[in-house]
Each structure stands twice: as structure tokens, then as C-alpha cells.
From TrEMBL:
Keywords, alphabetical: Cell membrane, Membrane, Sugar transport, Symport, Transmembrane, Transmembrane helix, Transport
SUPFAM superfamilies referenced in this protein's UniProt entry, alphabetically: MFS general substrate transporter
Record's subcellular location: Cell membrane
Transmembrane domains' residue ranges: 45-67, 97-113, 125-147, 168-185, 197-217, 238-263, 283-304, 311-331, 388-406, 418-443
The name this protein goes by in its record: Membrane protein
A Gene Ontology term for the protein's cellular component: plasma membrane
Signal peptide per UniProt: none
A GO molecular-function annotation: symporter activity
GO BP annotation list: carbohydrate transport; sodium ion transport
InterPro entries associated with the record: MFS_2, MFS_trans_sf, Na/Gal_symport, Na/Gal_symport_CS
Organism lineage string: Bacteria, Bacillati, Bacillota, Bacilli, Lactobacillales
Length: 474
């Protein structure tokens, strides 16, 4: 290795390390809180709409499509606003949003699971309004949270570690939501009231987790507040995003993988209820399959020390695809469903853990390529595609269920059962394979290239200002 490569590697991989264990735990708990507040919609809202509120499955799925497309544009607007804020306090550029958005987000979540006894049309209107406002508020909370990694550290390996801690918190939130939600619902005699009680419990826990995160994470790197920009500057910034090929590639593969992941979460309730006829399987899935993601979260930093993040990402998709193909044919009882889904989620865990590290790398790539640094816009561009994937994950099951003749609460036909099985396994297997192909051919930001980019950026800047690493609690 020549001296240039050595200096670049030193810049990106070994210095400086500024994130403490307390910061990592705080960041993980923050995403656990995000999931308490968000996953209720992905896991249970479609089933609540169809089986409790009584909405037609296609109409309920359309609520997700419209609301998530709205959310996607909300993310871009929020990212633009955050990047161009000029009144930035000592609390940081991103941290304050965790503090102020938590309670409104919790109240809006509760509203989604408290549908009044209106007509079907009235219930649909309530669903649209409540879910769209909830999504906008979630953008205001989540876009700053995800944009924060580049301000916490410049170290590539440390970013992978933070991404893994975040994914661990996310999966803990998802696991607890999967294990605990339906048992709470079933303790209440009235099912609709049971849903509301369960959501209230998780909403309160979500607020407390986000406040804990606010108190224990820190933005170590800062830059001068930007001057007010005009429409020409904004168009230039958006144009820079489209020129960022690694970001565009990563966003597209997230459209694949995240829609597959969220669709599985939505459909597994139907799979357990109508194919296995065993609702306890839902809790076993939460414990073992989501628990397997913790294994991949632990393995990810170890693997990325030896292999390029790109290839670890692709490895996860290989594991995921193989497990789901086998699951389609053989998951005919609770044990096999949990087994194959656990292996699939092990593979998904590699992609999920690395997403946040890779998108942070894309921030530096975009600055290096165009001279424009925009953490919020990069992250919101990335989450735009994740919201589109959530739109697909909510809309597609509703349409397919209507197409195959699904009838809530009744014995399903063979065609309906095959539709549920295909949604659970084939959709995600196909998109995992597509992700492997696209990452291999289109994602060019390897570790070696990234190290050179960071070195070049530091030379351009001359120096950076880093805040003292003192603890703050307000």
C-alpha cells in the first residue's frame, strides 16, 4: 500500500473515534422508540382496518399507498428545511427534533387505532387524514434522527458500528412490538378497545425512549449555519442528488428490500391466522425471527472489518433469498415458519444494519462530487424510496387479498391461501435477488474509493471544527 492509500485509510478508518458507548446506547434506544411509534402501523394497521374496522381490503391498502406517497414528499420537504435551517442552537442541528416531536407523534399514532363508529366512507376519511398527518409528523422526527450519523463521526468503521447499534435498537423495538402487542389486545374483551390500549402502551414507551436518546447522543461535528438559499440553490442541490449514483443505487435497492421486509411484517399476521391457524406463531416469530437480526447486527461490524460493506450487503440478500424460496415450499407449521423466517431475517439484518452506514458514505461522496454537502436532503432522498417501499408494502397485500378472494374472519379458499403464501415468501425472494444484481453492477462506492474521497475532502477543507466531547443533557 502506497503512502496516499495509507493516509486515506487512516483518515476514514482509524481517526478520529469520538463516539462513546453511552452515545451508541442512546442512538439504539432512539430507534427502538421510533419503532414503538412506527411499527404499529406496518404490523397491525392493515389487519385493524380489514378485520376490526371493517374496511374493504383494497380500500384499506389504498390508504397505505396514498399516505406513504404523501410521506415520501414530506420527507424531501423536511430534509430541505433541516439542511437550510439557520437558527441552530447549542443542542445541535438534529437532536432537538427528538425532544419536540415525540408527544405529537404518539398522540397521532393513538388516533390511527381509535377509528370512530362512522360509516365506511367516514372511516376511510378518518384513516386517510390520521395516517397522513402521522406520517408527516414521523418525518419531522425521523429524518433528523437518521441524518445525524455524519455529525456524530467521520470514521467509516465507527459509522458501521453506529448503524449496527441503531439496527439493534430498531429490531428490539420490532421484537417487543411483535411479541407484546397481540397478547395485550387479547386481554381486553372488546377487540377495538384492545387495539387502542395496546397502542397507548407502546406510544408512551416510544416517547420515553426518544427522550432518553435525546439526552444521551451528541453531534460531535458541526459546520457554520447555512445562509438563506433561493430556488436556484435548491434546484442545484436536488440536481446534485440525482448525480450521486451510489445514493440513487442504494435508494433503489432499498425500495426492493424494505418493501419486502415490511410486506412480510404485514402479511405474517394473515399467514399465522389463516394458513397455520395459530396466532401464537406471531409471538414466536417476533422472538426468534426478529431476534436473529441481532445476530447479524453483531456480525456486521466483524465482517465489515474484513470485507467491503457492499459485499456483506449482497451476502445478506443471498441468505434471505434462499431461506424464502425454501419457506414457500416447506413452511407448513409453526416451527418451519419460524425457522425459515429467522434465517431470512438473518440475511435481512446485514442489509438493514449497513443501510445507515452506506447512506452516510453517500453524503461525503455527494460533497466530493459536487461541492454541496446536504445531510438532510441526502437522507430524505433515501427515505423517500423507503416510504415508497412502505406504500407498496401496505398497498400490495390489500390488492392481492381482494384479487384472490380474501374474506375477513372466514375460512379462506385455496387461491386466497396461495396468495398469502406468495406474498409472504416469493415477493421478498425475487426482490432480494434483484438487489444482488443491482448492487454488484451499479454501486461503485467501495471502501478504498471512500477512503480516498474523505482524504481529498479534508485537504479541500483544510481543517474541521469539532466540538468538545463534554456531556450535555439539554
Amino acid at each position: 500500500m502506497d503512502s496516499t492509500e495509507t493516509n486515506a485509510a487512516t483518515t476514514a478508518d482509524t481517526a478520529p473515534r469520538v463516539v462513546t458507548l453511552r452515545n451508541k446506547i442512546g442512538y439504539a434506544i432512539g430507534d427502538m422508540g421510533n419503532n414503538f411509534l412506527f411499527d404499529m402501523g406496518q404490523l397491525y394497521l392493515l389487519n385493524y382496518f380489514t378485520d376490526v374496522v371493517g374496511l374493504p381490503s383494497a380500500a384499506a391498502g389504498t390508504v397505505f399507498l396514498v399516505a406513504k406517497i404523501w410521506d415520501a414528499f414530506a420527507d424531501m420537504s423536511v430534509g430541505t428545511w433541516i439542511d437550510n435551517r439557520t437558527n441552530i442552537s447549542k443542542r445541535g442541528k438534529f437532536r432537538p427534533f427528538l425532544l419536540w416531536a415525540a408527544i405529537p407523534l404518539a398522540l397521532l399514532l393513538i388516533a390511527n387505532f381509535s377509528t370512530p363508529n362512522f360509516s365506511v366512507t367516514g372511516k376511510l376519511i378518518w384513516a386517510y387524514i390520521a395516517y397522513m398527518i402521522f406520517g408527516t409528523c414521523y418525518s419531522i422526527s425521523n429524518v433528523p434522527f437518521g441524518s445525524m450519523i455524519p455529525t456524530m463521526t467521520r470514521n467509516s468503521q465507527e459509522r458501521s458500528e453506529l448503524a449496527s447499534w441503531r439496527q439493534a435498537g430498531s429490531n428490539l423495538g420490532l421484537m417487543l412490538a411483535t411479541i407484546g402487542f397481540m397478547p395485550i389486545v387479547e386481554t381486553v374483551s372488546n377487540e377495538q378497545t384492545g387495539y387502542t390500549v395496546a397502542v397507548v402502551i407502546f406510544a408512551v414507551c416510544g416517547v420515553l425512549a426518544q427522550w432518553f436518546s435525546y439526552a444521551n447522543i451528541k453531534e460531535n461535528y458541526s459546520a457554520p449555519a447555512p445562509q438563506k438559499v433561493n430556488k436556484k440553490d435548491l434546484r442545484k442541490s436536488f440536481g446534485a442528488l440525482l448525480k450521486n449514483k451510489p445514493l440513487v443505487t442504494l435508494s433503489i435497492v432499498n425500495l426492493f428490500t424494505f418493501s419486502a421486509f415490511n410486506l412480510k411484517l404485514t402479511v405474517q399476521v394473515y399467514y399465522c391466522k389463516y394458513i397455520l391457524k395459530d396466532m401464537t406463531a406471531e409471538s414466536w416469530l417476533g422472538f426468534f425471527s426478529i431476534g436473529m437480526v441481532f445476530v447479524s447486527v453483531l456480525l456486521t461490524p466483524i465482517l465489515t472489518k474484513r470485507f467491503d460493506k457492499k459485499y456483506v450487503y449482497m451476502l445478506g440478500c443471498v441468505i434471505w433469498a434462499v431461506a424464502d424460496i425454501l419457506g414457500f415450499f416447506f413452511a407448513n407449521n409453526t416451527f418451519l415458519l419460524v425457522f425459515f423466517t429467522s434465517v431470512a431475517y438473518l440475511g435481512d439484518g446485514f442489509t438493514s444494519a449497513l443501510n445507515w452506514a452506506l447512506v452516510s458514505d453517500c453524503v461525503e461522496y455527494g460533497e466530493w462530487q459536487t461541492g454541496i454537502r446536504s445531510e438532510g436532503m441526502v437522507y430524505s432522498f433515501f427515505t423517500y424510496f423507503r416510504k415508497l417501499s412502505q406504500a407498496i408494502a401496505g398497498f400490495l397485500p390489500g390488492i392481492v387479498l381482494a384479487w384472490v378472494g380474501y374474506v375477513p374472519g372466514k375460512t379462506q379458499t385455496a387461491t386466497a391461501l396461495l396468495g398469502i403464501r406468495g406474498l409472504m415468501f416469493i415477493y421478498s425472494a425475487v426482490l432480494s435477488l434483484a438487489t444482488i444484481v443491482l448492487m454488484y453492477w451499479a454501486y461503485s462506492l467501495t471502501e478504498k474509493k471512500y477512503s480516498g474521497i474523505v482524504k481529498d475532502l479534508l485537504e479541500r477543507r483544510g481543517s474541521e471544527r469539532i466540538e468538545p466531547t463534554t456531556d450535555e443533557s439539554n
